[in-house]
Amino acid sequence: MIKGSCLCGDIAFETAAEPQGASMCHCGQCRKQSGGIWSSAYVPEKDLTITGPVSWFASSESAKRGVCPRCGSFLFWKANDEDTISFSLGSIDGPTGLTLTKHIFVADKGDYYELADGVPQKD
């Protein structure tokens, strides 16, 4: 069981499903919202239990982002046409047991860091 929460504790989530696609996103939206790189993994939406007042923001025509309205923690990313939901790896309470599988949107990454960990990269 993986459990996570926002900074203030108003929102919590849990899943017994095995998370997939552990990645670090370097897109401009994730950088602006998180202050850097946003790391996440995904599970089927039906397998993620969320409690608390998530505020959903339509960040594009194809996806929305879930944040805590009190502390501002960026917790979830959901594509409108998919049945999966991504959750922040940084919000997991305790060890994740996951291994990073890819860096995504590296063409948009900041110019103030390099990627030298050998993990596959996708533009």
TrEMBL record:
Residues 2-114 form the CENP-V/GFA domain. Gene3D superfamilies: glutathione-dependent formaldehyde- activating enzyme (gfa). PROSITE patterns: CENP_V_GFA. InterPro entries: CENP-V/GFA, Mss4-like_sf. It comes from the Bacteria. SUPFAM superfamilies: Mss4-like. Keywords: Lyase, Metal-binding, Zinc. It holds the Pfam family GFA. Belongs to the Gfa family. This is GFA family protein. The lineage of its organism: Bacteria, Pseudomonadati, Pseudomonadota, Alphaproteobacteria, Rhodobacterales.
